[in-house]
């Protein structure tokens, strides 16, 4: 019998985007572009998901450059991968504020083993995007930031959201990181497709760290209270 680890790793390996992207927007596919990401994420999933325990989905927006684009694991930057998860990462030690918040929350929940035995974090759009800034540097870009991008990514999002659900996650409740456009898109899609009975939105970790860091403990409590509902 296959485990969650087996199915998640296969899901990541098959990710490939063939849509026509708007000018200056680039797809990020760490599982094909970065050998470290596939190796590291596979070790992570074999360590924490090598079973078939009931788990619920938590869906973020799309991967960012300094977190899952590096490690292949959502909201897990190289620093947290090494220090918290105990998995080697021989590449650049990038820092992502969202990852810092998520791992503080996980510690408050009861620790990594406890949290990952009940939840799986990924994204509405499982691959990320970048766009060139005015300084010609690539910056993170969200799937909903551009109408043409959303149109191009829509079939890919639907196909791979269905594949993620088919891995075997519970569908009574789905948690959504992002109480703005990400929630709005997911709710609209769910109203049409009926993937989940309920969607519970939570403020996105990046928003909390960027704008509400003084109230971080309040948001962690809000997360934990929400997770108690399942």
TrEMBL record:
It holds the Pfam family UDG. InterPro entries: Phe_SMUG2-like, Uracil-DNA_glycosylase-like, Uracil-DNA_glycosylase-like_sf. Gene3D superfamilies: Uracil-DNA glycosylase-like domain. It comes from the Bacteria. Residues 47-228 form the Uracil-DNA glycosylase-like domain. This is DUF4918 domain-containing protein. It comes from Pedobacter ginsengisoli.
């Amino acid at each position: 019998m296959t485990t969650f680890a087996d199915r998640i790793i296969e899901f990541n390996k098959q990710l490939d985007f063939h849509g026509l992207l708007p000018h200056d927007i680039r797809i990020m596919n760490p599982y094909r572009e970065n050998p470290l990401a596939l190796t590291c994420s596979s070790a992570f999933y074999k360590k924490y998901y090598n079973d078939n325990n009931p788990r619920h989905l938590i869906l973020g927006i799309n991967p960012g450059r300094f977190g899952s684009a590096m490690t292949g694991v959502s909201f897990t930057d190289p620093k947290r991968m090494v220090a918290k998860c105990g998995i080697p990462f021989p590449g650049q030690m990038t820092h992502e504020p969202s990852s810092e918040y998520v791992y503080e929350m996980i510690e408050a929940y009861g620790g990594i083993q406890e949290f990952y035995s009940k939840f799986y974090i990924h994204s509405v759009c499982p691959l990320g995007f970048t766009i060139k800034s005015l300084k010609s540097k690539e910056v993170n870009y969200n799937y909903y930031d551009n109408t043409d991008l959303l149109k191009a990514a829509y079939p890919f999002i639907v196909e791979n959201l269905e594949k993620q659900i088919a891995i075997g996650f519970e569908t009574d409740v789905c948690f959504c990181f992002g109480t703005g456009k990400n929630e709005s898109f997911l709710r609209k899609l769910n109203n049409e497709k009926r993937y989940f009975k309920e969607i519970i939105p939570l403020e996105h970790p990046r928003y909390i760290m960027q704008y509400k860091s003084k109230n971080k403990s309040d948001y962690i409590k809000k997360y934990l209270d929400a997770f108690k509902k399942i």
